Amino acid sequence: MLTGKQKRFLRSKAHHLNPIFQVGKGGVNENMVKQIADVLEARELIKVSVLQNCDEDKDTVASELVVGAKAELVQIIGNTIVLYKESVENKQLQLP
């Protein structure tokens, strides 16, 4: 689990990022979870945006992604979910 200090640090790093994935009408599926897991391995920190036409609420989407991709939820801000997962091979972020 991330500490408050680590979440603050990650939020500041995520501020400038653009959402890479969009969750729409289909909701979360296995393929999307696998892609998100792969991108997290490469980047460690990503944003996912939940579109207006998504059938599930953003909290449900966030928890599905966290469990599926084995990631940490940094924050949900508006319809944007910020996810973090420490990379095995491409470590870029040094948590405080």
UniProtKB/TrEMBL annotation:
NCBIfam families assigned to the protein according to its UniProt record, in alphabetical order: RNA_bind_YhbY (TIGR00253)
UniProt cross-references to InterPro entries, sorted A to Z: RNA-binding_CRM, RNA-binding_domain, RNA-binding_YhbY, YhbY-like_sf
MF terms (GO), sorted A to Z: RNA binding
Domain CRM: 1-96
Name of the molecule in the record: RNA-binding protein
Keyword set, alphabetical order: RNA-binding
PROSITE patterns: CRM (PS51295)
Listed Pfam families: CRS1_YhbY (PF01985)
Xref: SMART domains: CRS1_YhbY
Organism of origin: Pseudoneobacillus rhizosphaerae
SUPFAM superfamilies (alphabetical): YhbY-like
Top-level taxonomic group: Bacteria
